[in-house]
Amino acid sequence: MMTRVNSQFEKTRKVSGPRSLQPSQWGMLCPSDTPEGEACGLVKNLALMTHITTEVDEEPVIRLAYNAGVEDIRLLGGETINNPKVFMVFINGNILGVTIAYRRLVEVFRMMRRRGLIGAFVSIHTSFTQRCVYIHTDGGRLCRPYMIVQGGRPLVQQEHIEQMKLGLRKFDDFLHDGLIEYLDVNEENDSFIAYQERDIDPEKTTHLEIEPFTLLGVCAGLVPYPHHNQSPRNTYQCAMGKQAMGIIGYNQKNRIDTLMYNIVYPQSPMVRSRTIELTNFDKLPAGQNATVAVMSYSGYDIEDALILNKASIDRGYGRCLVYKNSKCTIKRYSNQTFDRIMGPMKDALTGKIITKHECLDTDGIVSPGERLTCKQTMVNKEMPAVKSNNPIEQKESGQQPIAYSAVPITYKGTEPSYAERVLVSTNNEEEFLVKILLRQTRRPEIGDKFSSRHGQKGVTGLIVEQEDLPFNDYGMSPDMVMNPHGFPSRMTVGKTLELLGSKAGVLEGKFHYGTAFGGSKCQDLQDELFKHGFNYLGKDVFYSGITGEPLEMYIYSGPVYYQKLKHMVQDKMHARARGPRAVLTRQPTQGRSREGGLRLGEMERDCLISYGASMLIMERLMISSDAFDVDVCNVCGRLAYSSWCHNCRSSASVSKISMPYACKLLFQELTSMNIVPRLKLQNY
Question: Helix or strand or coil: residue 236?
């Protein structure tokens, strides 16, 4: 189900009103799950138990309203309608009638809804300022469930919870039995809702929150101890949690996606939340438990950089599979010609298959399991050459055999890949479709991005041999070293609690809970650590891996659940010495995918001007970009061609100079608009 709410407000306007979480949206929309940047606050996400209503037929509701004492407004006079005791009744914005006994009307509707005689999402509320009763059965309203409180006690008792644990009762049964009900935003204003059971007022309270953590959405609910973090950190995690690699489904081996990232050894987090269990995140996890030492090691961990243990990477930490899709279609054309796939080409002299066709099977398509390197052919496709439309040429050619030109589908990656699977099928136009699933196995390397569940992101700064890393009394070295300067300003106390909970859980052999507004208490975690002979603060004595001497300070260390994000340096690194150029300007193309150049922009040019580096400017902006030799007439100053000035009709005084091709193009475009630029040359 889609859980995103998108505002149509203009993103470029810097107005805080539409971006803020309105009081009426409390509990309906997640306060943390919103993107950063210009869409901040305009794209919101539903909270965990929010439901969007669908339209209900209003005819039975209208009949019920008339039976409950609503009178048709057409049968009444003005004096009756203007009576202060008379309330007007509306249904979905249309006038239905008037009533004097508005309390009885509201009670009847709520009783019928709780007994299941009308739709669970029909709402009714009273406005005393307008003397109106509003009934809503339309779709698109946000609702969430609450426990009903009567006589100061919630109707949901412990026996009901036990039945649900045994599988004898489901959530819908609570709804049908009238123990809980859905309220929309308008009806919430008519209710007195207690936050927790101890807050119930016997005289006033009408409803009770099911669980406080349901105020958050799915993404924010995956964060352990979010109520101990600074709020922007939870927002960052909501964005980064969607970029984490994991398992996408039990059918992931049977599908061919355009791009799919899978982590090879996913683990369930040691510190969970109730949201994790409700959404089955523990069955399809997206991360690994890394033993983290919070200390500074060398200068390669500044600015959030992480130091990884090489032995941990060898054992599979952070290893991922990247699946990509390559496809081609075999078309049939209107002139009775069609594309074809040819078998691998053989060398005329040796009789062996040529190098770029080594991976092809006899049918001309790559064999599953073959290792593909850059520019190797995956499908040896040929298409018919385009014929001339000239009838004389067609008549002369007669019934000659169709000429084919090679248009092979080649592998364009810089690193080798393996052909995982080949699918031959048809598409909607009944054309043959060949899909190839490519697989790459990647180890973490310097520049790859990792993140904990608290918005603490960082790239790998150094990969160190295990024997050089510090070790504790048990001889255990950390998988990851994190700089302690990441804690004071970010104030992610939830991360320190997660480390304590994970460490205690590993020793005790159980999962701990970091559910929002609750979870395992810090004192209980410290007691478990102390019981197993560890420092209750989570700190250990570490020894230098280089000298063997004890480190001067205790080191805070333990397991933390880390996510490997999809941002990998292999997909981003780019450099160019030579490559393709744009047709029009003859300047280098733009972008990594087109092997483009790296642009020296206006600001960089200004810096070089301020240094007076004129020759460097010429080298960057002309010689290495689009230098072009042109002939210039010394008499009229216009461009000449082949040492001949067409304006002066002479070749007596023509010089050859170099200029950027874009400059030459500008002169020609200005000339086409009757603006004639003239060059005045002199020796220097």
Answer: helix
> How high does pLDDT run on average in the chain?
91
Using a cut of 0.85, tell me whether the model's pTM lies above it: yes
Instruction: Give residue-wise pLDDT tens across range 489-514.
Output: 999 999 999 999 999 999 999 999 99
Q: Give residue 391's pLDDT band: very low, low, confident or very high (50, 70, 90).
A: low
Q: Is domain 53-210 annotated with CATH 3.90.1070.20?
A: yes
Q: Do domains 321-386+402-442 and 579-624 have the same CATH topology?
A: no
| Top-tier CATH class for 627-673 | alpha beta
Structural contact between residues 384 and 337, judged by C-beta atoms closer than 8 angstroms: yes
The neighbouring-strand residues paired with 266 are none
At residue 569, what is the residue type? V
The yes or no reply on domain 321-386+402-442 and CATH 2.40.50.150 is: yes
Under CATH, domain 579-624 is a member of which superfamily? RNA polymerase alpha subunit dimerisation domain (3.90.1800.10)
The architecture CATH gives domain 226-249+263-318+451-564: Beta Barrel (2.40)
| Cβ-based neighbours of 39, under 8 Å, separated by 6 or more | 11
**Structure token digits, residue 403:** 């000429």
**Is the confidence at residue 651, as pLDDT, over 90?**
no
Strand, coil or helix: what is 622? helix
**What whole-number distance in Å separates Cα of residue 510 and Cα of residue 222?**
18
Q: How far apart are CA 238 and CA 221, in angstroms?
A: 9
- The pLDDT tens digits for 220-231 are 999 999 999 999
The predicted-structure confidence for 282-311, as pLDDT tens digits, reads as follows 999 999 999 999 999 988 999 999 999 999
CB 582 within 8 A of CB 589: yes
Residues noted as catalytic? 304
Question: Do strands 87-91 and 132-136 pair parallel, antiparallel, or not at all (unpaired)?
Answer: parallel
